[in-house]
Specification:
By secondary structure, this protein is an alpha/beta fold. The protein has helices at residues 3-37, 41-49, 51-74, 96-104, 112-120, 130-139, 156-166, 187-196, 219-228, 247-253, 262-272; strands spanning 82-86, 93-94, 125-126, 143-149, 177-180, 198-204, 237-239. It folds into 2 domains: 1-37; 51-272, Rossmann fold. Strand 6, helix 9 and strand 7 (237-239) form a beta-alpha-beta unit. The structure holds magnesium ion.
Length: 279
């Protein structure tokens, strides 16, 4: 073949190969955009840096303490002993370190396998004000019940005990820690505790930490159920902020831990633009 023709054929072959590769390049470009638009990014920047995020924990524990003080002042000699029931993850323990890791790995949805590995490393930290509040309860003979739904297999309870001990929380033992592996329904345990204690307040980052009736996959229904209980917030329901996980995610996707997929990225985009000005 003539040298010029050879070069032309080669150039054509390269351009055809490039053309064939365009969809893949397109995906890469989307991947880069996705890195910028990682749906965890703003939520995690807020969790990791906003003084407002930490202040909301202090606010929650200050309210909880006020509720305990009122209950102590009103307590009668023959009434049941006082107790508080608290969720663990994102209420008493923060996992910013884990969610930050996901972003560094290019992941934009919760990942159960790495979560289980992370739990084993005892890297969770106490939320702002948690330790002081729990110690206040103990010093006033108010029982603390840690009620969590976690599942790391047979080691779930031991790992939860290690996590809570690592941050020096009080009364971490079988009597005070209730781990629900099979179901996230906390009401059965709450009722058991209420047989022996007057429960002053429930603490959580998920409405399901308060009542099972919020376990709805309908965003509007969940919202209206919350509205019906609006007088309980800041009283017996003490809520902490969590913009990365919880049953609000389940209400959007139909499941609490939706897999990373473009379909789910579209769903979260639709959720984020539920109301959107279109001039
Ligand atoms: Mg939680």
């Amino acid at each position: 073949m003539h040298e010029t023709v050879k070069v032309l054929v080669k150039a054509l072959a390269i351009s055809m190969a490039l053309a064939a590769a365009m969809p893949a390049l397109g995906q890469n470009a989307t991947g880069n955009d996705r890195d910028i638009e990682n749906n965890l990014m703003m939520a995690m920047a807020w969790k990791q840096t906003a003084a407002e995020f930490r202040a909301l924990y202090y606010q929650g524990f200050n309210i909880a303490r006020m509720r305990v003080e009122i209950a102590l002042a009103q307590k009668k000699d023959d009434s049941l002993p006082l107790a508080i029931i608290s969720d663990v993850d994102e209420t008493l323990l923060l996992a910013n370190d884990y969610w930050g890791y996901l972003i560094t790995q290019g992941q934009d949805f919760f990942d159960d396998a790495s979560w289980d590995r992370w739990i084993e490393e005892n890297r969770a930290v106490a939320s702002p004000g948690a330790l002081e509040f729990l110690n206040f309860c103990v010093s006033n003979s108010v029982e603390i019940f840690y009620v969590t739904n976690r599942d790391q297999g047979e080691t779930t309870v031991q790992l939860a005990i290690e996590n809570l001990n690592a941050v020096r929380f009080p009364h971490v033992d079988a009597a005070h820690l209730r781990v629900l592996r099979e179901s996230s329904n906390k009401e059965i345990v709450q009722q058991q505790i209420r047989e022996d204690y007057e429960v002053v307040a429930l603490l959580g980052d998920n409405l399901n930490d308060f009542a099972r009736r919020y376990y709805s996959t309908d965003v509007d229904q969940r919202m209206s159920l919350m509205e019906q209980d609006k007088d309980r917030y800041g009283r017996d329901y003490i809520l902490f902020p969590n913009p990365t996980d919880g049953h609000w995610i389940r209400a959007i996707f139909g499941e609490s831990e939706p897999p990373a997929s473009d379909e789910n990225r579209d769903i979260i985009r639709r959720a984020a633009t539920r109301a959107a000005w279109a001039p």
